[in-house]
Design a protein that fits this description.
The protein is α+β, with helices and mostly antiparallel strands and 140 residues long. 39% of the residues lie in helices and 20% in strands. It contains 7 helices and 4 strands. The protein has a 4-stranded antiparallel sheet with strand order 2-3-1-4. The longest helix is centred in the C-terminal third of the chain and has 11 residues. The radius of gyration is 14 Å and the shape is globular. It starts with a strand and ends in an 8-residue tail after the last helix. The mean pLDDT is 98. Bound molecules: adenosine-5'-triphosphate and magnesium ion. Adenosine-5'-triphosphate binds next to strand 4.
């Protein structure tokens, strides 16, 4: 087992409903440590850059519009197998398919407004962490 870091984003549907603390409690309850955290309002260009891998997907435009509709909270999570552990506590992309007790099951509004983002691999985590944070911002 390896100590890993992953990028998490609390999305605008969740910040709007004042769920940052409730989501952080779920993350910490899953054994993840929040070693950096920043609340930001993304610009359209920043959201497009962050989700560039989804550029060709039919939902890309809507997703970008949603991600700039309010503040987000970007976080670096640290823990054993942090990438997979965070994906587990997040639950499935579509809240209708998410397991009981997961963040998306309890809080997500829809497949788009699904409350959290989590990196899907260690490689992407490194890229996504660097998108929001410098090394000095991360205090393990
Ligand atoms: P994330 O990358 O946000 O952690 P994910 O890896 O579970 O979520 P992806 O397939 O990477 O899901 O999709 C990225 C995001 O795009 C989703 O979290 C969701 O907000 C949105 N999305 C995905 N599929 C759809 C869809 N069919 N319709 C609308 N929005 C979608
Ligand atoms: Mg994804």
């Amino acid at each position: 087992m390896a100590l890993e870091r992953t990028l998490s984003i609390i999305k605008p549907d969740a910040t709007r409903r004042n769920l940052t603390g409730a989501i952080n409690a779920k993350l910490e309850g899953a054994g993840l440590r929040i070693v950096a955290q920043r609340r930001v309002r993304l610009t359209t260009a920043q959201a497009e850059a962050f989700y560039a891998v989804h550029r060709e997907r039919p939902f890309f435009r809507d997703l970008v519009t949603f991600m700039v509709s309010g503040p987000v909270v970007a976080q670096v999570l640290e823990g054993e197998n942090a990438v997979a552990r965070n994906r587990e506590v997040m639950g499935a992309t579509n809240p209708a398919n998410a397991a009981p007790g997961t963040i998306r099951k309890e809080f997500a509004e829809s497949i788009e407004a699904n409350s959290v983002h989590g990196s899907d691999s260690a490689e992407n985590a490194a890229i996504e962490i660097a998108f929001f944070f410098s090394a000095l911002d991360i205090v393990g």
